[in-house]
Amino acid sequence: MIPDLIHYKYDPRALAIGDFNDDNWPDIVVANYAADNIAIYFGYGNGSMESPITYSTGSGSAPCMVAVGDFDKDGRLDVAVSNFGTNSVNVLMGFQYEVFANQTTLSTASSRPIWIHATYLNKDTAIDIVTANYGTQSVSIFYGHGDGSFAKSSTYPTGFDSFPLVVVSGDLNNDNQMDLAIANYGTNTVGILLGNSNGTFSKQSTLSTGPNSHPYSLAVGYLNDDTVLDIAVT
């Protein structure tokens, strides 16, 4: 069992799974909103977990989402955290067995990043980071350099009072370019940003989810046995 240290008082907001110590067993990383930290639970492979190792994300950071990927291409999984309270993204690099080091911070200005997504957006071999920005009604893209560093963010508006909560990626129009889909809670829409060949994105188009639907989450996948990605929204 997972140790009973995931207390409600820490206000855990999100988790992600990955093998962080290269033992071929899945581990769990949790964003603890009220505790201003992330906690990593290393798995034994039998359903039980070690007591957590925690890493501070900064006073008042209020981390609310985590994403994993090998951002520096060293063969070890790293963790990216969206900090709602300090308008930033923290990137923690996997260093050695059960140790993370070299935490770096990326500014998202005054955006209140509520969601983070790690993916390949521009056809290189470096993982990029996307945030959904609740405070500025936008999404921000940090293109990775493949060494753990990132370019200054590019930001795309999602509309007045859209209050985006989630952003995911996929090739939605079969042009071999990655696109973005956004759950716009405030405007009852799914926003679509189509990717261009030069690494930029087109102006947002929207799909209505119905009056007062307030889309809270979404996912993309092949749902009806054709070759076109579909979107599921809640």
From TrEMBL:
The keyword Ion transport does not apply. Keywords: Signal. Gene3D superfamilies: 2.30.30.100, Integrin alpha, N-terminal. This is VCBS repeat-containing protein. The lineage of its organism: Eukaryota, Metazoa, Spiralia, Gnathifera, Rotifera.
